[in-house]
Amino acid sequence: MKTFLIRLSLFFFLAIFVWIIGICVLGVAFRGILRKNLQYSSPRGYSLTRLQQADTIKKTNVLILGSSHAYRGFDPRIFKNKGIDIFNLGTSSQTPLQTDYLVDKYINKIDVKYVIYEVYYNNFQKDGLESSLDLIFSTAKPDMSMLQMLIKVDKIKAYNSFVYAYLRKSVLGKKEKLKVSKNAEAKADSYIPGGYVASTLDIEEGSPTGEAKKLTIHFLDMHKEAFETTIKKLQAKNIKVILVQAPVSRRDYLSITNPDYMNSYFSKFKGVSYYNFNNILPLPDTDFLDGSHLNQHGVDAFNNALIDKLKADGVLPAKF
Amino acid sequence: MLFNSIEFIIFLLLVYVLYWFVLQKNLTIQNFFLLIASYVFYGWWDWRFLLLLILSTIIDYSFGLLIYRSTVQRTKKLLLWLSIFNNLAILGFFKYYNFFADSTKVLFSQLGMELHPYMLSIALPVGISFYTFHGMSYVFDIYNGKAKPSTNPVNYSVFVCFFPLLVAGPIERGTHLLPQVEVKRVFNYRQSVDGLRLMLWGFFKKIVIADSLAQLVDTIFKTHEHSSGLSLMMGAVAFAIQIYGDFSGYSDIARGTAKLFGFELLINFRFPYFSRDIAEFWRRWHISLSSWFRDYLYIPLGGSKGGKLLSVRNTFIIFLVSGFWHGANWTYIFWGGLHAVYFLPLLLLDRNRKNNGPIAENSILPSVMDFLRMVVTFIIVCIAWVFFRASSIGEAFTYLKEIVTHPLLNGKEKLLFRPYIYIPVMLAIMLVVEWICRNKDDVSSFFDVFKKRPVRYVVYALLCFMIVMYGAFEETSFIYFQF
Fold it and tell me: So what's the ipTM on this one?
C-alpha cells in the first residue's frame, strides 16, 4: 500500500510535468482544433490594446465595465465632447466573474469616482470561458488572481490556456502583438483610444434577420455573487455605481419572456442607479450592426441620451 | 454523481482513504461504510429514489430468504413468481407505464376510438434496470440451488448497490460478487494498478472518443434531412463508436474502481467490433446482460435443446426482450428484433458457435476473409444502431434511405467534420491498443509492453494529457444511465 501511494504521488508530479511540456509543444507546433483544449490567439475586440492602455491610465472621470456592449457602446469621443473623460474596460463576453477580476486589478491604480457597469443580460447566463480566454491572451501577466477567477469558471480550456500564457509571458517574458483577423467584420473595426471599438459596418451588412428565439433569462448564481461582490467593493471605495443596459435590437429584446426578472434584480441595489435603455430609448434596427450591437449612429444617439439623462437625474455632475 | 466529474474524484479519494486506512480492520463496519458511500453516490443524483432502491433491495433479500427456507417446491415457485412480479412491477411502473399507456392510446386511435390514459410525469430512476436485474439474478440463483442467501442484509445491500456498478452495471451475480463482499479484502498492489489503468483507459474512451463524437452524432441525426450520403454514413459509424466508447468506457471505469477496493467485477466487453459474425458480437458486447438473458430466460425457455424451431423462437424472445430492456420505445424493440434476424442464418446453419476464439489468434493481422467478415459485421451492427439512436422507427428508415438517395457529397462536409479532425488519431490509438489486447480480458495488460517503469509512467501521463487536451469536458451523462 505504501509503495502504491508513493508511486501514485510520483506519477502525479510526472503527469503535471508532461502536461506542461505537452502544452508548450502543442502551443508552439499546432493551431486551431489540433490543440483542441488550448486557445491562445488574438480575439476580436482589441482587448490586448485596451488593457495595454489601461495599464497606463492613472485617472478618469468614469470607468466603463462590461462586455462588447460596453466597448462598442460607449464612445469616449462623445463623452469628451460633453466634458467627461471615460475609459472603457469592456472585454468580449465579459461576465461578472471577469468584471470582478478587472475591478480588483485596476481599481486601486485608476483614480475614478464613477463606474458605469453595462449589464447585458446574456452575460449573466454564460459560462465565462470566452471572456476568460480573451483576458488570458490580453493581460500582460497572468497572475494568481486570474487563476482564482478561472477556478470559478472551471473549464479545462481555460486552465490549459492559462498555463501556456503563464509560460510565455511570465517565464519567457514574451509580449503579445495584436493580430487583426482578415475577415470583413474584423477589418471594419478600429480601436479608439479610451477603450472604444468603432465599426464602419452598417445595417445592410450586419442587420438582424429572422425571428429571434424566445429567451427566458436565468442568471447564474456564480455571476450574481460576483456581481454583488463587485458592487460592494466599488461602494466601499466611495465609487458611484451606475448600471446601464445599452439598447439591443427590438427583435432581441422583445424575445425575452421575463424582462421583469432582470429589471427587478438590477433595481434592488441600494445606492445604485439602474437604467434600461431598451425601455428608455428603443432604437430602430437601422441603429445596429447586428442583433445586439449598436452601429456608430446608434452609439451617437444612445451616448447623448445617456449623458443627458444621467446629468438631468443628478447621477453625474453637470461638470467634472 | 457522474464518473467524469470532479465530485466523483473527490468522493473516490475520500472513500478510498477511509476504506483502507480507517475501517480495514472490521469487515462489518467496512461493508456498512461501502453501503453508505454507495447511497451517497446514488442519492447525489436524486435522494428520493434512494427509497425505491432500498425497497427493491429489501424485497429481493426477503424473497431470497423465504425461498431458501421454504421446503415445499410449490411454495418456492410461488415465492419466485411473486419476487419476479415485484421486480417487474417496479420496473414496469417507473420505466414502461407511459410507453404502454401511449401505445394503447395510439392503437385505440387507429381503431377510431379516443382514449386519454393517465400519463406519469416522473423521472426514470437511474440504474433501475440494472439493480432490479441484480436482485432478480440473486433470487433465481437461490431458487435454482446455485447459491445460498446472504444472512447479512448489509452484505446483500452492498452486492446490489456497490457504487461502481450501481447505475450502469456490469450486471453482477450473487454467485460472483456476494462471496467477495463477505470476505475481508486485502490490498493487492497489482490489482490496484490494474484498476487505475482500466479507469484511465475508460476515461480516455468516454471523454476523448465518445463525448467528442456525441456532438457530431447529435448534429448529423438532427439535420439528417439536409445531410449528404457520406455525412449520414459517418453519423451511423460515429454513433457505433460513440456508444462503444461510452458504455465500455463506463464499464472499464466501474471495473477499475471496484479493483481499487479489492473487488473483481464481471467483464462486460471483449472488443466487440473485432467480431466476425453477429453471434460473436453478442458474446463480446454487454456480456453481463446477454449472459443474464441466456441463463435466466433463454435456458429456462428450453434454450436450443428442443429443436430448431424452439431455438429460433427463444432467440427472438431474448433479443426482443433485450431490446425492450434498453428502453420504453419501439426503436429498441426493433433494434433487438433486427439483431435476432441477423442471428437467424447462423442459428439455422449451426454456425453461431463458429468464431469462439479471438480473431487473428496467432498472427498480428487478420486474414483477408476474417477482415471482410469483421467489416460486414460492423456494417450490419451500424445499421442496427441507427434504429437504436433514432427517435422513431420511421426516422431510422428515413435516415437509412437518405444514405442511398442523398448525394454522396454536398459541400458542407468540410465545415461539419473540421472540428473533429483530431478524432481519427484518437481512434487509431484506441484501435491499436485494443487490437493488441484482443486475446485478453481488457487493456490493463497492454501497459506491460513497456517494460521499464519510467517509460510506462510517461505513457500513462501522455494518456492523461490527451484526455486533458482533446477531451470533451461537459460532464455529459453516460448513455446507459437512461436504461
Answer: 0.84
